[in-house]
Amino acid sequence: MLYVLAVHFFLISLIAFGGASAVLPEMHRFLVENLHLISDRDFIALNALAQAAPGPNVQIVAMYGFQVAGLSGAVVSMLAMCGPTSMLAILVESFGKRHSGTAWHKLIRRALAPLTVGLVLATGYMLSIGAARMGDSGTRPLALTAVAVGVAMSRRLSPIALIAIGCVLGAAGLI
């Protein structure tokens, strides 16, 4: 099982341009849908815990690894997700500094932005659908996600403010 975790987290780390949160749909597909190693409820609960805890978002990988294979699963998953791609990032940045003024370098940097946004939107969609499957009423989680995305994109409102608004509305029982 450790080998399977290592290989998969290494492979998805290569497309995690928006960080670990950007590849949550692929983690979900792998851990919940394909191998049934984690339940939908556990996947979303661990994600919520990782988001609430201080530290980088990539800690979710260790939490999923721990859930699947204990401490060794956490260590292997984190090393596979962070180790090789950290080295790759250092090499790319070093190469990029030497070629920062070239047209192809600017094009690649501009092309990565929509890719990252798409991955993050897919994550929001996947988490909303998962929340709906956990017993929430129909498409309400997806609708709330769409409203939050719309507000975030149309106004200069911090995501933290949207989270705070969601917390207050949730605590009041309105959502």
From TrEMBL:
Chief location: membrane
Record key words, sorted: Cell membrane, Membrane, Transmembrane, Transmembrane helix
Ranges that cross the membrane: 64-91, 112-132, 157-174
Subcellular compartments: Cell membrane
Membrane topology: Multi-pass membrane protein
InterPro entries xrefs: CHR_Transporter, Chromate_transpt
A Pfam family per the record: Chromate_transp
Family recorded in the similarity comment: Belongs to the chromate ion transporter (CHR) (TC 2.A.51) family.
This protein's name: Chromate transporter
